[in-house]
Known about the structure:
Layout: E1 4-10, E2 17-19, E3 26-31, E4 41-48, E5 54-60, E6 79-88, E7 91-92, E8 99-103, E9 115-117, E10 141-149, E11 153-163, E12 165-170, E13 173-174, E14 191-192, E15 194-197, E16 206-215, H1 217-220, E17 238-247, E18 252-256, E19 262-265, E20 268-272, E21 276-280, E22 299-300, E23 302-304, E24 311-312, E25 319-326, E26 329-332, E27 338-353, E28 362-368, E29 371-372, E30 375-376, E31 387-391, E32 401-402, E33 409-417, E34 429-436, E35 442-446, H2 449-465, E36 466-467, E37 469-470, H3 483-496, H4 500-517, H5 543-555, H6 559-575, H7 611-633, H8 636-657, H9 669-677, H10 684-701, H11 716-722, H12 726-734, H13 742-746, H14 782-789, E38 792-794, E39 801-804, E40 814-821, E41 824-833, E42 836-843, E43 848-851, E44 859-861, E45 864-871
Parallel strand pairs: 2-8, 14-24, 21-31, 39-43
Antiparallel strand pairs: 1-3, 4-5, 4-6, 6-7, 6-8, 9-17, 9-23, 10-16, 10-19, 11-15, 11-17, 12-13, 12-16, 17-18, 19-22, 20-21, 25-34, 26-27, 27-32, 27-33, 27-34, 28-31, 28-33, 29-30, 35-40, 36-37, 38-39, 40-41, 41-42, 42-45, 43-44
The site of beta-D-glucopyranose (BGC) has 9 residues, from helix 3.
Amino acid sequence: xxxxxxxxxxxxxxxxxxxxxxxxxxxxxxxxxxxxxxxxxxxxxxxxxxxxxxxxxxxxxxxxxxxxxxxxxxxxxxxxxxxxxxxxxxxxxxxxxxxxxxxxxxxxxxxxxxxxxxxxxxxxxxxxxxxxxxxxxxxxxxxxxxxxxxxxxxxxxxxxxxxxxxxxxxxxxxxxxxxxxxxxxxxxxxxxxxxxxxxxxxxxxxxxxxxxxxxxxxxxxxxxxxxxxxxxxxxxxxxxxxxxxxxxxxxxxxxxxxxxxxxxxxxxxxxxxxxxxxxxxxxxxxxxxxxxxxxxxxxxxxxxxxxxxxxxxxxxxxxxxxxxxxxxxxxxxxxxxxxxxxxxxxxxxxxxxxxxxxxxxxxxxxxxxxxxxxxxxxxxxxxxxxxxxxxxxxxxxxxxxxxxxxxxxxxxxxxxxxxxxxxxxxxxxxxxxxxxxxxxxxxxxxxxxxxxxxxxxxxxxxxxxxxxxxxxxxxxxxxxxxxxxxxxxxxxxxxxxxxxxxxxxxxxxxxxxxxxxxxxxxxxxxxxxxxxxxxxxxxxxxxxxxxxxxxxxxxxxxxxxxxxxxxxxxxxxxxxxxxxxxxxxxxxxxxxxxxxxxxxxxxxxxxxxxxxxxxxxxxxxxxxxxxxxxxxxxxxxxxxxxxxxxxxxxxxxxxxxxxxxxxxxxxxxxxxxxxxxxxxxxxxxxxxxxxxxxxxxxxxxxxxxxxxxxxxxxxxxxxxxxxxxxxxxxxxxxxxxxxxxxxxxxxxxxxxxxxxxxxxxxxxxxxxxxxxxxxxxxxxxxxxxxxxxxxxxxxxxxxxxxxxxxxxxxxxxxxxxxxxxxxxxxxxxxxxxxxxxxxxxxxxxxxxxxxxxxxxxxxxxxxxxxxxxxxxxxxxxxxxxxxxxxxxxxxxxxxxx
Length: 897
Ligand code: BGC
């Protein structure tokens, strides 16, 4: 019997170096095929680097996730090595690997570094943060200093952050592979700092140098649509850096950012997130981050006080490059332009092999997601230039390759202007994919290649839009943390990747901005880069409650509920204007079922479902969730209050919107699906009637096309499955006629589009000025793919008990979903062989599964690997309605040829 512990982790950290929690909770996973194995105790062993003794703690419990830190709290910079073993059913596991955990700077007093800025005069924002739309910030700047180490170094840590985004080097070497650090944050609330182990970069008993290059990034770069603004949080680039060196003799020395530092412009002329980076090789200054470099011509920095209380260790992983892609094709456009095609719409930048060329010769790379009429289509980028420029020096460059480091683009195609050679060698270009480096936790594979491509597209859109914060899109002059988008996508996101830490940071910032607004509403997007005053908006504002809830369901970590509780209550109790029935007040602006395909291209909020109705469905939903949140947190009186509110609101909702027979006033896919999914029909008979009507709408009116936007899309599949109409949804999912999920796939999409028809069938781009080819919201259908095709869903928060109940259909002959749950890997894999359905299930140790296959009786099984077989009769496929005299029959909507 195999049984192993792996993936020992602290809180939600992928790497636990420089964490902000003095008593980090510990979790581990199991793998192996141990049958019916349940943990009954664990032993945690802790070895602190400051002590030679080992502490061991044994606890009798089945808990293996988020167990309390058993020892005394870590102090700033304390390091420990931790391992775990467990026992159960008379079996002991072996010890896990040792995992290291190290605290960051936990107390404000630990920070000795001052903020350093350039001395150059710049236009200061007029009096306060967030008001300057005209002045341009400084160009990227190099900061450096040297220092002597006069003894043997034992270890060294660099604690560092910036106003702007930075890259740090010590003695000519980069300190890490992090990109765009410290990421994006609500700067007036918190400034994340990074901790790097730089022990191996320093030289003992010698002169050393530290260098930091800083560019505007989100801090003072241009952000927002309609031209946006610069200098939203400040007008000057700055660094806060604290290098702590521990010598072998126990002495500690700290090299801080202070007046001893100097600064100079470098070769990076401009670096804007939206517009791109310009780099002039001729302006390279040599080994500027090494000792011995002549910095006599450099200027002294200004030192500034800063509020060290804002400095905070991040809860999520950093942004990194996780993959590179080669050029697939070089295209010559009808107008003669040379275009590199990387074959995949991605987020990142291009690394290029520097060609020979005359001094001052500029190579320009314009990045776009799609081609239109064979040319790079820049219109969807609106005012983002997405152009990187490399200016050659006329000499043989010191480096072979160049890549921008302070910008990113959403692109598949790159228009290459000014390439100095006639022939383009495709191997001289590489696309570098970047995103927050979360652990991938899922995979999906079925017998239908188009469905598999759809799933890959969803993953690519998640990667591209999880760059520090969850954004709407990664390419145009927007890229903002829109609340409604992540609200729609959170259940899917939490299955695809471990995004708990990253979203925890984002939610904390959202709550801060909500509180500062003072009216209970969160901003439309966070960070609120455009200072748009918060106003109540259902679905978007509901993210305050639904996103933490979805994270809790996925992880079982209730601490996200307690830390967001004030924000949740503020929204539900104070943010939402109510009428006499406690429903949404009569006159509110709502985006509601945003991007319903029936809405005109320039009015995406004008869908077919009444906005107020949609808002009220969600209001009842969040009230139900609040009742459950209060139960989990032990606020039983409040739980009763919200349950009571939800019952009376259901009555009010029904009398306003539901007919006695079960019609709903907006006769639309979204309205009925929401009614079913959120259990808003007062009687079973009404719900049955509504379900029949929904089937009619889907078959007759839509001919299996989708007719939902942000509100209906994530739930319509679940709603249909819950009323026994899974096969109907399969036909919608397999439909390739627009609007549908597979239409973009049939058009060659490699990411999820913002609109169902971001590209029209004739290859032209949707005329709407808001047309991205990388938006994850419509990818929320993956939640149904996991839960119904794969059949995996949790029966309690955190996947300790889960269900395996795949529902084959859609002419699939096999499907497989794997999920790295908080306990270990679950698998549900089924295939049809002749008239038999064979299901293979893997249940990780310390968990239980309820397996439901067809009409068989549910079986509860413990850990292990199982094969189930049952007789298979292919489910009846809902047929297309007969064409009416005025309606030509469509081609087969599933045809992808
Ligand atoms: C964004 C959306 C967002 C919407 C709300 C758009 O510009 O891209 O995804 O939710 O605005 O108005």
